[in-house]
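Feature request, filed as a ticket because there's no other form

It would be nice if the structure record came with a short human-readable summary line next to the tokens. Right now we just get the raw output. Example of a typical job, pasted below so the devs can see what we mean:
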Amino acid sequence: MAPAMWTLFIRITGDTIWGTLGILLVVLVGLGDVPDATRRAGADRHRLTTTVEGRVPPLALRAPASTVKHGGMGDVTDYLATLEGPEHEAVAHVLDRARALLSEVEEGRSYGMPALRYRGSPLISVMVTKQHLGLYPFSPAALEGVADRLAGFRLTKGSVSFRPEAPLPDDVVDAIVRARAAEIDSKQK
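Raw output as currently delivered:
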């Protein structure tokens, strides 16, 4: 099928079970590869995983991250693998501090971001943007407790921005992680 036909096929049937079954049937029968336009048009709804060549292997449906226990590789590890240089070191350092403080953390996703999860709830995420790195503790209260120690950093209700050359102090990262973990613990009692 031509890419335009795939796009039309997904747009017409992509929101129904028949669209999902139709895509799987075409991929299994081998009538063609799913083109990039199809992935953009709606394949995200089906959580298709692509290979290096950009092709979709048959039955490559990924389980939701919240149902996967990660003993090694996972969303956070995969995200770190995409980073290089100072950004990689800064993000890895914050995540390593969190893992050292709480041995029970697991990798997962929250609000679409790779995140460390603690007792089933999002603990923190650290992401690289065009202009800075962001630490997201998923809780305004966790940041309020350290706001006085964040002079020189951009602080919003739900995040703190920093640069690789001016990282967050370790004691601040530790305080944020401990505050968020205490909040999660108190909600689970």
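Something like this underneath would help us a lot:
The CA atoms of residues 38 and 44 lie 9 Å apart.
The chain has two domains: 3-46, 69-187.
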